[in-house]
Amino acid sequence: MNTTEIPAGIQKLFDERRMKRVSSSFHAARSSVIRNAMLAGAAVLIVLYMILPVSRVRNISVHTGGRLSRDYIMKTADISTDSIFYLNIPVLVEHRLKSDPLIEDADVSLHSGNIIEVAVTEKKVIGYRYENEPVVLLQDGTTAPLKSEYLDIIASVPLITGFSDEEQTRLLIKAFKDIEPDMIEEMAEVSQYDMGYDSQSIRVLMRTGGYFLAGYNSLHYINSYNEVYSQMTDTNQCIIVEDGFRAAYTKTCPWNEPVRDVEYWLDGEGNKIINSTGLPAEKHYYGLSDGAMAHDAAGNRIVIPINARGDDEPDPYFEAHYYAGYYETGQLVIPEDAEAIPEDEEVPAEEEVPEEPVGMIQKENII
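^ thats the sequence. predicted structure below, dont judge the formating
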């Protein structure tokens, strides 16, 4: 017997295992071929779809606040009618839009018929100004570099000058909060102006050529500018609203008034004393009945004193006291042995000032 011969049972087992390996390799190869064929077929279909016009965006519907153009929105979103419809993933398009400093929010949706709808909420632009470079000033306190694409925007908002420090800018932005967008479009330039009682008054040059002056807390009255302006008989005058008052009045613009040598009453800390009308208390001087100014012994004019409210409180017997020599020092000093003022001495009656609602002030041409 040949000891090298393999028993028939074992040989059969080897043959069965070999056949299984061959069969498994065949099935694996067939699955791979089928899978590759399917992938190749899908790729061909995708390529054919992308080539065909049916894959393209048919229409783009854009809704904006009106300042940013449709073309600008589409460019920022990186969408067009040449793009593949299903490649415009809404969340990615929205992200690109929100990255723009002038866009507050965006909503993008895909609709049947290969239509893309884009709704954009724009930030409120209050003006533009020049820092190290020209920038657009926004209601939320941020700025954006002035790009050529924003030229249509700056044509409808004012140029802002002054308000250079952070706090002034914050107050200006706050003052614009309640101003209507249509009114902002009517402003040509916004700057600071020293009104004496308020060194940071806001001066607005309107596109009509008129001027509106107000404090930070009363700038919102400019919403009624057109109503007041239409009633003015002299449009060369300024419309003024002072902080704390509820009335606008018209008067000659401060820069057109004759220059006056005005002195103000100051408190112990050197600040201007404010009178009952809310204005700085000016120093006024006594005059005589013959039209001459009254002077003390040193030749100085004699100032009319003020009361605790900052209002003039003149001596009702001034002229009699003056000629009696009681104002030699510039202030009323009556000697103990002085004769009494004659009872028939005419004393001017005190002028009664009617009480007015808080914030109202008598000015020329109150509107």
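The chain has a mean pLDDT of 82.
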